[in-house]
Amino acid sequence: MNPRVYESEMPAFTTDVRMNKPIELFASSSGHAADASQAQGCGGGGPCEAVWWVKDAQVQWRMKGEAFVVGNDVEEEQESSGVRTLKSEVGKRMRIVDGEKEGEWSWKRELTGHFGNNSPGLRGMVFWLPFVGIVGGMTLT
């Protein structure tokens, strides 16, 4: 949905607030959220690992790094510390490929686009829930 202004090697994952992943990321980050009320919206920065098994090649791919939550508060007028952390840390890993269109790019539009990539069944199941995206600076190990 956004013009191609940035590129990155960061993977993006989607989830909803019923899952434990956002809370776990906040709890294990430098902010050490103590409960779910402190893990709302953008922020995080906790350690994360993702593993895939490629059956035909008999190979396991493992990535590890930090993960940040992109929440619905990403473009609110009054930025929280979580929004500032997200934009600062993830922004360090984004490269500008078309600076002329930089003002046309939106975090909220990017979040909506990732949600739109989910299957219709999943989108229909979670349409009423606050949606979060998780991005991270991960390395292949």
Question: Any chance you could write out the topology, listing elements then pairs?
Answer:
Elements: E1 6-7, E2 12-16, H1 21-28, E3 43-54, E4 59-70, H2 81-91, E5 95-96, H3 107-116, H4 120-126, E6 131-140
- The strand order across the widest sheet is 2-6-4-3
Based on secondary structure, the structural category is: alpha+beta
**Percent of residues in beta strands?**
25-35%
Q: Ranges with pLDDT <50 over ≥5 residues?
A: 125-134
Describe what this molecule looks like in 3D.
The protein is of the alpha+beta class and 141 residues long. The protein has one domain. The chain contains four helices and six strands; from the N terminus they run ββαββαβααβ. The strands form two sheets. The protein has a four-stranded antiparallel β-sheet with strand order 2-6-4-3. It has a two-stranded antiparallel ribbon with strand order 1-5. β3 and β4 form a beta hairpin. The longest helix has 11 residues. The radius of gyration is 16 Å and the shape is globular. About 7% of the residues have low confidence.
